[in-house]
Request: fold
Amino acid sequence: MNIQALLSEKVSQAMIAAGAPADCEPQVRQSAKVQFGDYQANGMMAVAKRLGMAPRQLAEEVLKHLDLSGIASKVEIAGPGFINLFLDRQWLSQQVDSVTAAPRLGVAAVTPQTIVIDYSAPNVAKEMHVGHVRSTIIGDAAVRTQEFLGHNVIRANHVGDWGTQFGMLIAFLEKQQNEHHEDIALSDLEAFYREAKRTYDEDPVFAERARGYVVKLQGGDEYCRTMWKKLVDITMAQNQIIYDRMNVTLGRKDVMGESLYNDMLPGIVADLKAKGLAVESEGATVVFLDEYKNKDGDPMGVIIQKKDGGYLYTTTDIACAKYRFETLHADRVLYYIDSRQHQHLMQAWTIVRKAGYVPESVSLEHHAFGMMLGKDGKPFKTRAGGTIKLSDLLDEAVERATKLVAEKNPEMPEDELKTLANSVGIGAVKYADLSKSRTTDYIFDWDNMLAFEGNTAPYMQYAYTRVLSVFRKAGIDESGVTGKARIEDEREAALAVRLLQFEETITQVAREGTPHVMCAYLYDLAGLFSGFYEHCPILTAGDEATQQSRLKLALLTAKTLKQGLDTLGIDTVERM
Ligand code: ARG
Reply:
């Protein structure tokens, strides 16, 4: 049920009948205040101007043609020409009945698109750090949202698995194997990388061997390939543990690392040269872009091949976009990458468009996000100033959540407590990130994210269990809700309208890639349910029909909270 779409359609038909052009925008929005109704049509002002009419006069004409019988109980003109729409309670009741009974909360089927979502993208032989956390969490929520709507989603984990550092890493892996006569666990990837780098800087013989291995790896040498693969496998096996712990839907099959595009690079460079887009400049191959100026005001040069023949991160992203269109047949490509890489992406895509590798009909979207900061407003670090390992962060989250839930539930059996603490702890870390507008930097704060009040995971998870407790107390489950919705009280109406806005919310989230909009919606919904629950007794409703109607609202609230949290990748629990 998409009320906004339904009303937009009706209002725009009436506008056209009143003489407005066919492309007129009714601008139907959810009203900010109850006195303005449930929805408002704000488009009269702009259209009246085009028609050379007074907006109120247009609004009056529109009302003559607007048929909302059975849908709205009142329609009125306000201010300079806003149209306020008040939904009919009987109509709301019917919608609640049909949405509750429908699969997928009555969300209409979409025309499926192929959507490639680029997210997580850690680097090989490096620990995933908090900088990859936002990409992983927000990207996975985008995946779940698009899949729920029925799109064909391709997860693309653009792992950093290629580059000159692999010579050094292979040489160091070999050294370790020779010294320890076994495959090392690489349990501390960060230390491994650091040691490899130190050896490379200090030992010229080692450095020479490392440089040789780069060339061999690029030439397809079997030994180097095997060693390289071992490094990728070990890294991704460790990352998989994190993905599983975080209930992130990425798997090994989703790895589409930089190396995948390596064979395309010489062809791309040759093609860009042939098309006159790339030129030789001081030995390197460069694309000069008029769209970007350097500090002297000249077109910015984007290097796509270095003097020594090596390719760059940008060259790979050019090939990658081409591949996603040509081979994966993407209609839309969403990149969840931090905002510092914005210019890099824009340059790569400008070249992609100029070369005609991806048509304009396919959208390439950078869903950028800010940095994760500590409470002091500086990049999030350990007390000693090191980067925080994601696995340590998750351990701490679960540890803190265990204390919290154990305090609240002293009687709870050990294993149930463990599962609960895990859902609350991991949920808190994820939700804290998802609930903030992604474009800004965000402050990581344990106390805020684990609070049982406010827009937090523990609050939302608790709110869900409260709704379920209604059914426990009534001694029934879903099958016991057989009556019809009958919206009478204003709190019932407010809750019903919000419940019926799930589809427009998820549609917006899918379009803009803004999970915080879903969080805000669910938080508001939970608040409306509390108000309803306090003022509209369910178990002591008096008559059976009222009780059934209220149980139905509770049921739809439970379903909506669960489904909404699920599209965010947040676990729900039955009790807490
Ligand atoms: N591996 C990169 C990093 O750690 C992120 C890759 C993002 N995806 C892309 N297509 N460039 O910064």
Remarks:
- Residues 3-87 form a domain with the Gyrase A; domain 2 fold (CATH 3.30.1360.70).
- The mean pLDDT is 94.
- The two ends are 32 Å apart (CA to CA).
- Residues 118, 121, 123, 158, 160, 317, 320, 335, 337 surround arginine (CB under 6 Å).
